[in-house]
């Protein structure tokens, strides 16, 4: 590969900025950025730029924002950048005419130890499933999502009470370092692509997009499952239940085993310092929450104004 490859970076959210910043700070030649179109946000529906676009503007890097990735005008603009390599971090699925364009191909950073947790929500799903470790993987893009040849991996432990937001923040930094290491390896010719191979469907864990149904707490479940659901969906989109006819988001919880014999879903509180829900095999103590129409707050603050 060219010792100073022209790189086009494709990404949108804040998670991707860490990798792009690492490329810039390590003096790689980022000749262009592809990110999502500006979107209305907030009460005034003001057009908001993606985190990646904001960073690219700061660094005077050209930005492309196609609505359709197969648009001939966009493809022509991309070709004019003459990329030797493309780097994808947290972006949408690419058509083959985009990922196959550079001579060096397109590499992707994924938030799991592939082939496990292929899909849109690997961080959330790993925690929700009670995993104690995960990782980041760089791989070469090919037709089917998250199935390309693996370049590098790095394992990351998951804390017992760590939530998705906390793991996300650690993973983006570790992933950024892995992207830099991967590109250096490609330039030096020291990396060997490893096919993911045939995976037994029975052992494969997937990471599909999170939907509202995934966020509703089912109190007859075991406390370990509920606790993992809460931390796996915190701080967004957040697991929730209902209290006095209003939705109640739970951001932090503590699980306590107890064969109470009571009906799951019942709420109990001392009105001062704790609030808990009965589950199948114990209690889920709520530590941080947000009742519909209110702000997010610790349970002690919530209980000061709460009347059962």
- Main sheet, how many strands, which sense, barrel? 7 strands, mixed
Output the CATH homologous superfamily of the largest domain: Formyl transferase, N-terminal domain
What would you say the CATH architecture of the largest domain is? 3-Layer(aba) Sandwich
Strand order of the largest sheet: 5-2-1-6-7-8-9
What is the mean predicted local confidence, pLDDT? Answer: 95
Structure characterization notes:
The protein has 308 residues and is an alpha/beta fold. The protein has 2 domains: 6-203, Formyl transferase, N-terminal domain (Rossmann fold, 3-Layer(aba) Sandwich); 212-304, Methionyl-tRNA Fmet Formyltransferase, Chain A, domain 2 (Roll), CATH 3.10.25. Helices cover 28% and strands 27% of the residues. The chain is built from 9 helices and 15 strands. The protein has helices at 14-25, 51-58, 72-80, 96-99, 122-128, 164-188, 212-215, 223-232, 299-304; strands spanning 6-11, 29-34, 39-41, 46-48, 63-64, 85-89, 106-110, 133-140, 150-157, 239-243, 246-257, 267-269, 275-279, 282-291, 297-298. The strands form 3 sheets. Strands 5-2-1-6-7-8-9 form a 7-stranded mixed sheet. Strands 10, 11, 12, 13, 14 and 15 form a 6-stranded antiparallel sheet that branches. A hairpin with a 2-residue loop joins β13 and β14. α5 (122-128) runs antiparallel to α8 (223-232). It is elongated and about 65 Å long. The N and C termini lie far apart (67 Å).
TL;DR?
A hairpin with a 5-residue loop joins strand 12 (267-269) and strand 13. 28% of the residues lie in helices and 27% in strands. The protein is α/β, with parallel strands linked by helices and 308 residues long.
């Amino acid at each position: 590969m060219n010792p100073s490859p022209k790189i086009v970076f494709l990404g949108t959210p804040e998670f991707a900025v860490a990798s792009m910043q690492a490329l810039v700070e390590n003096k790689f030649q980022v000749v262009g950025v592809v990110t999502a179109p500006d979107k209305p946000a907030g009460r005034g529906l003001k057009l908001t730029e993606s985190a990646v676009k904001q960073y690219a503007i700061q660094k005077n890097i050209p930005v492309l924002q196609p609505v359709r990735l197969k648009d001939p005008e966009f493809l022509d603009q991309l070709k004019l950048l003459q990329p030797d390599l493309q780097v994808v971090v947290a972006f949408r699925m690419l058509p083959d005419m985009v990922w196959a364009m550079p001579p060096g191909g397109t590499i992707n950073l994924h938030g799991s130890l592939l082939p496990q947790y292929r899909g849109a929500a690997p961080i959330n799903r790993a925690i929700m499933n009670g995993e104690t470790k995960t990782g980041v993987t760089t791989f070469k893009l090919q037709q089917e999502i998250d199935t390309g040849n693996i370049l590098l991996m790095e394992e990351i432990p998951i804390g017992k009470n760590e939530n998705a937001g906390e793991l996300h923040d650690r993973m983006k930094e570790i992933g950024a370092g892995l992207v830099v290491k991967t590109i250096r390896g490609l330039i030096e010719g020291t990396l060997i692509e490893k096919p993911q191979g045939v995976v037994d469907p029975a052992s494969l864990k997937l990471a599909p997009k999170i939907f509202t149904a995934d966020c509703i707490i089912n109190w007859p479940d075991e406390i370990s499952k509920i606790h993992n659901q809460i931390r796996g969906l915190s701080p967004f989109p957040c697991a929730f239940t209902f209290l006095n006819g209003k939705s109640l988001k739970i951001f932090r919880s503590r699980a306590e085993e107890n064969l109470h014999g009571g009906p799951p879903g019942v709420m109990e509180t001392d009105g001062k310092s704790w609030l808990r829900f009965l589950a199948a095999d114990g209690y889920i103590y709520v530590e941080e929450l947000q009742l519909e129409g209110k702000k997010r707050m610790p349970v002690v603050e919530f209980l000061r104004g709460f009347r059962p």
